[in-house]
Amino acid sequence: MSLFPFFPMATILIILYLSYIFLAFAQNEDQFIYNGFLQAKLQLDGTAEIQSNGLLQLTNTKNVSSPQIGHVFFPFPLKFNTTSSSGLIPSLSFSTNFVFAIVPLVPTVGAHGMAFIISATRNFSHAVGNQYLGLFNSSNDGLPANHILAIELDTALNPEFGDIDKNHVGIDVNSLNSTESVPAMYFSNKDEKNISMELVSGNPMHLWIDYDEAEKLLNVTLAPTKIPKPNRPLMSKPIDLSRYLLESMYVGFSAATGTLAPSNHYVLGWSFNKSGQAQSLDVSRLPQLPRQRKKREKPGLIIMVLLLAGALVLITIIGAAYNSRRKKYEEIREDWEREYGPHRFSYKNLYKATKGFSDKELLGAGGFGKVYRGILPSSNIQIAVKKVSHDSKQGIKEFVAEIISMGRLRHRNLVQLLGYCRRKGELLLVYDYMPNGSLDKFLYNNERSNLNWIQRFRILRGVAAGLLYLHEDWEQVVIHRDERQPLALMCLHLGLSCLEVACGRRPIELQRLHEEVILIDWVFECWRKGAILDASDPRLEGNYVKKEMELVLKLGLLCSHSMPEARPSMRQVMQFLDGDAQLPELPNDSELFW
Description:
Oligomer: single chain
Low-confidence stretches: 1-7, 16-27, 294-299, 480-485
Strand content: 15-25%
CATH class of the largest domain: Mainly Beta
Radius of gyration: 30 Å
Mean pLDDT: 81
Structural class: alpha+beta
Largest sheet: 8 strands, antiparallel
Number of helices: 10
Number of domains: 3
Shape: globular
CATH topology of the largest domain: Jelly Rolls
Helix content: 10-25%
């Protein structure tokens, strides 16, 4: 007698099949293994793609005209910060291992790197490439709301993130300032010692990541693929991940590469388990990396000489023709510029980028020159071009000083100098274009300001951090190059910035009957009356931390002291803003302030 007398046989088979599918998914929803990624159903974005042999490639060196970002995620979120059904396995414990390779375009020279990530979201549309590894940008790096754990494989030295070298493994929590990082190496069980590894060697490498919720311990282990897992991990970090991970999280990879020294980032295989030890990868089944181009057999010596001679003649002819056509764009080149050759832009390209330095592209003008917006025709990258007159030798010296110093600066709060150009009586500096424009358009517009106090306080800390980098951290102390801007004068500028940001007012404003109101005097008068918070921007409607607002206003007055020796150093300013030092009392004499 049939167990299902009222159902047709086809319906019974469908029900049994679906039950089997759901049961199989329930048994494997917390773990997976990919010995190669052929036909793998993963979430890809950016430059990430799966090759025909099953190799997962995050970035490539085929197109190096702009920085690249690649992401890949397991398509379904996993349960992390929640109690397991059995109650025996800690809910946050996990285990994963994967085989990766970083193959640089230029041997042993790689820019930036890749990371294994556990993230609350798969949307990284606002992330930046290069040193940010496709994870953050300058405004959200370090925010607790990120809810990101990353194990970075970094192949570039970025002082702004406290990197130890250009070949390290780091543990990142919501920020690229690693909570712990060590040079890339592995422990040899045979030799019982650590052996260094080069991440950009182009060879496949194996990485294991294991977290024990009971011990609250995160272990990271690195090794070549030819040896088993070492007995000792590369890093063993005590950390409570329940403070950072949410209930539902995604797991995957992110990679970024620049334009100067690009790299190919690959993942050959990946195993993950949320409820136990991850399965071991079968290295013999993993896809092969693309073969590096090998030189063909050398032709005969005579043929080689003839080819070289012909090439030289052809290059000479082409070069002569090219130079003759560029006479009207002739540029000045001197011996000191040889070191900066790769960063030099052609005048012709800058002329086209700014539409002939059109007034419609003018961003602003000051005592040091005019600044134009431009779009490079070859890469469609937006730039800002500062055009300086070339009327005196002093102007050349200032230009050379800025080229040598600013071209080497690397800090997220400083506009990056991309390159330069010289043509007859003109000097040109090329910078990153800041699409949001100047801060004053957010502070001084007639409408309600869209900058809240948290954003304003972060901006002031960023300005102070950038000045501190120029004053102390940068090895050549750039500020000292211009005697008209000593450390004390830059502190005065910072003081004015503090008052403008906190009050939402210009340094000097015209009121009725053409009366001038000086911001420093007005804030000092509020302080003298014991009501310094009255100077705060009314558009904030009192939505600020009173201690922080009072600190910024008093710090602005202190930095505006008329005696340079009475102004705090930039190191002290950062200590005041971070709450690591107490702000001294202000003098009662208003004439002591500018």
